[in-house]
Amino acid sequence: MSGNDDIAHIEEELPLQDLPLDAWHRAKGARMVGFAGYHMPIQYEGIMAEHSWTREHAGLFDVSHMGQIAFSGEGVDEALEHLLPSDIKGLKPCRQRYSMLLDEEGGILDDLMVSRLDGAAFDGAPIYMVVNGATKYDDIGWMIERLPDEVVMNHMDEQALLALQGPEAGDALAALIPETADLIFMQSGPFTWRGVPLWISRSGYTGEDGFEISVPAADVTLLADALCALPQVKPIGLGARDSLRLEAGLPLYGHDLTPAVSTIGADLGFAIQKRRREEGGFIGHARVMKELADGPGAKRVGLKIEGRMPAREGASIYAGGMQVGEVTSGGFAPTVGAPIAMGWVSLPHSAIDTALEIEVRGKRIAATVAPMPFVPHRYRRKA
Amino acid sequence: MSRYFTEDHEWIDVEGDIATVGITEYAQEQLGDIVFVELPAEGARFEKGDDAAVVESVKAASDVYSPISGEVVEANGALEDEPALVNSDAEEDGWFFKLRVGDASELEGLMNEAAYKKFVASL
């Protein structure tokens, strides 16, 4: 047995950790499950009700399991442009970008948000990154090995992260912090609430308007209470977070995105700006350029399902007798009122409106390649 | 009429040689919002423990086992249009299917209501 195997084994055996809001979730009646190494709330009153509440009002999600990392030091922009395919040098203060970590073959190691900070936030570091909870330690290990000594990475595990999402999120947050009303989608900034320093971005993963709020773990209970005391806001669990992001057409790392798939196939080419495509200089560039020229072998697509029976992750997708893909996320979509899915389909079968079949428990159900999002995004793009 | 329960959280009402099968209040509560129920065809024959139906919540699909051997004589068509009936009335109108009992002695190993309540409390 190799040393790596030993580490993997130990990780599996580690007990689940508690998030800073653990007791708060339980007091709110959450059903807790293990996710990304933590006890997390899957639901409070029920996934359907929480999903609808978020689409109509505002939902508060605890996403403190995600990794929050600050980068500083000489040459940090250049160093991150080697690791990320996105334009970091052109990222203005208080702006955020969706990006990803790619491996040498262009496979996706994680998807993430990267922002340029401003002022004294996070000890004056210039760059802030939020990565997925389940992958954060692997991401940090990957980056440590590839960053020059001058660049310092600070994993801020003393920070909690809340997401406030929904059409009433703007009004709700403005009730506590009026200055947040001026933020637009993918803009961020430092704010203070009752003396507590917050870093807030207007972003999220539900397709709705909303915010992501980094708050010291010591103050997160106070903030969560203040938000949930507002008439627009209820706590929402992981279950609805998943159905909301699926309807919004947003991929979930570890399911729709893995090291086996590429940026262009995943339809995430927007994260690689023109200069980066042309100049390269990032890990995985060759794969991106090849697939931009020749097309990817397979694409991530949306699938509308006929009937009521959901098709879930792992179900095979067929064109006649030939398997042409696999469902990577699927389930009942409460706002759509029908089952939907996301999957990977070989390029010749990936065009919108292509009729396909999905095998569920030995039966074939009809599915059609559909444009995403399934529910229109309602981001606040202008002040 | 006698009602029996299984450790897989199914209930069985037996009247004469017909057994009505559903999932318990505890099971529907654990599953959450139910969005689809796949029911067995009339005439299907099951051995005790066979997969007989599938109940799907927003998050996941779960198998429902045949608690005893028998032949399906009726499935609850109301669940096709309104799967949420399982949430609102799991132990009455939300029944899944009726079986002609194949071997009445299989009922002897099942729990009565008091034993099932105790079993759930221990979980």
List keywords for this structure.
heterodimer; A: 383 residues; Gyrase A, domain 2; Elongation Factor Tu (Ef-tu), domain 3; 6-stranded antiparallel beta barrel; 11 helices; B: 123 residues; OB fold (Dihydrolipoamide Acetyltransferase, E2P); 6-stranded antiparallel beta sheet; 3-stranded antiparallel beta sheet; 4 helices; 37% strand
Question: Structural class of chain A, please?
Answer: alpha+beta
Number of continuous helical runs of chain B: 4
Strand content of chain A: 25-35%
CATH architecture of chain B: Beta Barrel
Strand content of chain B: 35-45%
Tertiary shape of chain A: globular
CATH fold node name of chain B:
OB fold (Dihydrolipoamide Acetyltransferase, E2P)
- Helix content percent band of chain A: 10-25%
Distance between the termini of chain B: 28 Å
- Tell me the number of structural domains of chain B: 1
- Choose one word for the global shape of chain B: globular
CATH fourth-tier homologous superfamily of chain B: RNA polymerase II/Efflux pump adaptor protein, barrel-sandwich hybrid domain
Distance between the termini of chain A: 58 Å
Largest two-chain interface: A-B, 19 and 14 residues
- In terms of per-residue confidence, which ranges of chain B show pLDDT below 50 for 5 or more consecutive residues? none
User: Main beta sheet of chain B: strand number and arrangement?
Assistant: 6 strands, antiparallel
Oligomer: heterodimer
Main β-sheet description of chain A? 6 strands, mixed
Q: Please, what is the CATH homologous superfamily of the domain at 3-66 and 158-247 in chain A?
A: Probable tRNA modification gtpase trme, domain 1
